[in-house]
Amino acid sequence: MKFPSNSTDAARDAGTFFIRMLWRAFPAPSEHALAARAAPVLDVSERQVRNWLRGTHTPRADYLLAVMAIAGAEVVIRKIEGD
User: Would the pTM count as exceeding 0.85?
Assistant: First the structure.
């Protein structure tokens, strides 16, 4: 079941968190460059990455966990501490 990224505050916050982690995990000067870097690592299309970045699709848990691992524990700790 898919949920629109803006259906609730919690979903919106989770989407924002995932987007920030994507930028941290795959630093790039543009959305296009980030998609080109992330897509082969995550085994998805560049279009899928751009959809995540734009908030039009919500990632599955396995992608969330993969990006969390790549981004590093620091991001997770900051989120838990309320950054």
Answer: no
